[in-house]
């Protein structure tokens, strides 16, 4: 069988095996993601496997660069990738995507034994929670309408016509005063 025929058979098998599995995601016909662990599990991680043109005769590309993995230290990621790479070498020449996902699921605890969440993510969530109340209070201030007293309303009504618009020339005195100030500076 050619590499393409092997890939088509494996693709069909993966689709039938993982049908309805929320952890599995087909990014393209040659690229797949699998979440090892449940949602909310601090030791959960995401593996992405992409097939090369000559897969399964050549190793697939295994990545842990997904945003989901940003709390995992690079040392732990490298350790997981190294262990998966060993499994790739053992299974080279055969369909191995399912095998790699299952190997990762079976060894999740061993893979993540040295995992300590990276502080950048927790500090980022702290920053978000600190900023959230500030933005909420400023939006409350904007929602509150300005309350005018009866005297202020009467004064405003006297200045405006029946449409609520100010009469033409209401600020001419201010404009003339402004021009006289700026014009005198030019004369100096």
What brief labels describe this structure?
alpha+beta; 188 residues
Secondary structure blueprint with pairings:
Blueprint: H1 3-17, E1 24-28, E2 31-36, E3 45-50, E4 61-63, H2 74-91, H3 97-106, H4 108-111, H5 119-143, H6 150-159, H7 172-187
Antiparallel strand pairs: 1-2, 2-3, 3-4
Protein name: RWD domain-containing protein 4 isoform 1
Domain RWD: 9-111
Pfam families: RWD
Could you explain the architecture of this structure?
It is built from 7 helices and 4 strands, in the order αββββαααααα. It is α+β, with helices and mostly antiparallel strands and 188 residues long. It has a 4-stranded antiparallel beta sheet with strand order 1-2-3-4, with helices on one face. The chain is elongated and about 90 Å long. The longest helix is centred in the C-terminal third of the chain and has 25 residues, at 119-143.
What is the percentage of strand-forming residues?
Answer: 5-15%
Biggest sheet layout? 4 strands, antiparallel
Number of strands: 4
Percentage of residues in helical conformation: 40-55%
Individual helix count: 7
- Residue-averaged pLDDT: 78
Give the H and E element order.
HEEEEHHHHHH
- The N- and C-terminal alpha carbons lie at a distance of 94 Å
Gross morphology: elongated
Low-pLDDT windows of residues: 120-140
Strand order of the largest sheet: 1-2-3-4
